[in-house]
Amino acid sequence: xxxxxxxxxxxxxxxxxxxxxxxxxxxxxxxxxxxxxxxxxxxxxxxxxxxxxxxxxxxxxxxxxxxxxxxxxxxxxxxxxxxxxxxxxxxxxxxxxxxxxxxxxxxxxxxxxxxxxxxxxxxxxxxxxxxxxxxxxxxxxxxxxxxxxxxxxxxxxxxxxxxxxxxxxxxxxxxxxxxxxxxxxxxxxxxxxxxxxxxxxxxxxxxxxxxxxxxxxxxxxxxxxx
Length: 226
Known about the structure:
The chain is an alpha/beta fold.
């Protein structure tokens, strides 16, 4: 038996580009037979819908609504729901796993850090970084930049990429730098479900278990763009 998890998912509570709520996303993935999801909304330095004029604590509170609504729904549905976020630097984005709301509250203005400082902060707190779609080509990306020295992994399958070549380049990049590999749908709307994510041979006990399995390669990458 395999246990499928979505690792890259957005909700309209925090991501300006998302269409559906955390609750609706949880219901979708439960109906598709997934064991769980990671909610990875765009952080304040990305395509966030959280008002910038609020104080830090209130911004963090509102940012977490998508995850918390998905979590509440997941508890009723038997779906694991884990916290993550997508941090942005000049349109290069990083999926962060293994941290929580308390980390964000304790680190005001971490959205304004340079990548090296941010990565150090994440790793000191025990977090895990996968560079999202590192070879994506899109109008909003003026220059591709890869950060193997700051990353634990690379997202080698992103179902939101518009060509398989972008994923093939990411796979070659991960192998060149001996990075772990992640895969995700980058889903923003329930009507664009594509069956991406990752699969494991057991139900994950939490983000730490996820991180350990990814580092060890004890997982299967889902998706057909490769």
